[in-house]
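Hey everyone, long-time lurker, first post.

I ran two proteins through the pipeline my lab uses and got sequence/structure pairs for each. Pasting them in order. The first:
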Amino acid sequence: MSNAIILIARILLSFMFILSGFMKLTDPAGTAGMIAGAGLPAATLLAYVAGLFELLAGLAVLTGFQVRIAGWLLAAFCVFTGIAFHLPYASGTELVNILNQIMVMKNITLAGAYILLATVGAGAYSIDARRGLQAVAAR
């Protein structure tokens, strides 16, 4: 049962990054604008890099490939983007401030989920398990 739950969690945790990464790669303008607004250089290039990272990391989580590495990288990505792009959240209209506060909380919460996934691993229903890189979760 634990392995089935880990699989369900991996599916749920991969969805956002697969979709977000695909959207960044097909239309990077909005992300490039946020990156430029945060004062980072090469905004369009960084938007493509972020999109590729999100898509590949999301697919890694979904398929259970190198999940421990992907989990740590996604946790760091969530914390970084929460801080870099959503703090301080007292920088816009009231609605923008509320949305940014929610985004920071979402990113920190997701970082915790990815740290847990990195610690527990991909479970039995994964590429890692088929390659012998993953201990199967206890039942």
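...and the second, right after it:
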Amino acid sequence: MTTETVAVTGMTCEHCVASVTEEVSELAGVTDVAVALVPGGSSSVTVTSDRPLDDEALRGAIAEAGYEVVDR
């Protein structure tokens, strides 16, 4: 199991959380997605998977949901 946490901007509500969770959950190997929502700031998205995550695939899934990963 691997766990990775990324900061995501633009999320403001539970609908945003659901969108990101849905897109990221579709990545191969993902077993859990947890979002700590910070409206107006950088929310934390923690992804657990049974294999190493491809960083570009993770960023792409979050972008598909309409949000952006930011470097901390």
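Reply from user beta_strand_b:
Welcome! Quick read of the second one: Residues 14-25 form the longest helix (12 residues). The mean pLDDT is 95.
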